[in-house]
Amino acid sequence: MADIADRANDRAEFFLEQAQRQRRETAAAIPATGFCLACGAPLPAGRWCNAACRDEWQADQKHREK
Questions:
Q1: Which residues contact 3 (CB under 8 A, 6 or more apart)?
Q2: What does the alpha-carbon distance between residue 23 and residue 4 come to, in Å, rounded to a whole number?
Q3: 33: nearest Cα among 24, 42, 21
Q4: Which long-range CB contacts under 8 A does 55-64 form with residues at least 24 apart?
Q5: Within 13 A of 34's CA, how many CA atoms are on the CB side?
Q6: pTM assigned to the model
Q7: How far apart, in whole angstroms, are the C-alpha atoms of residue 47 and residue 27?
Q8: Which of the residues 6, 26, 28, 57 could staple to 2 if both were Cys, CB 3.0 to 4.6 A apart?
Q9: pLDDT tens sequence across 15-31
Q10: Spatial separation of the C-alpha atoms in residues 64 and 48, rounded to whole Å
Q11: Read out DSSP for 4-49?
């Protein structure tokens, strides 16, 4: 039988998975422009030149939503 901590963990995991899925879907909907969306460096493919640029761009987008 699940106790309150088990139910809380299940709920936290559910919301984390939803947030991660939404973030992936949002990133997939952004068109590739040939340039990094964060720093503007030319790219042969993709939207960001590295994970740091991606994280910076996503943080900026969250800040703009507020």
A1: none
A2: 29
A3: 42
A4: 58/23, 58/27
A5: 0
A6: 0.54
A7: 9
A8: 6
A9: 989 888 877 776 667 88
A10: 19
A11: HHHHHHHHHHHHHHHHHHHHHHHHHHSPP-SB-TTT--B-SSSS-S
Domain limits, the chain: 1-30, 32-66
- Give the Cβ contact number of residue 35 at 10 Å: 14
Token match 């991606």: residue? 54
Strand partners, 42: 35
Can you tell me the mean pLDDT for 50-64?
87
Of 27, 56, 64, whose CA–CA distance to 39 is shortest? 56
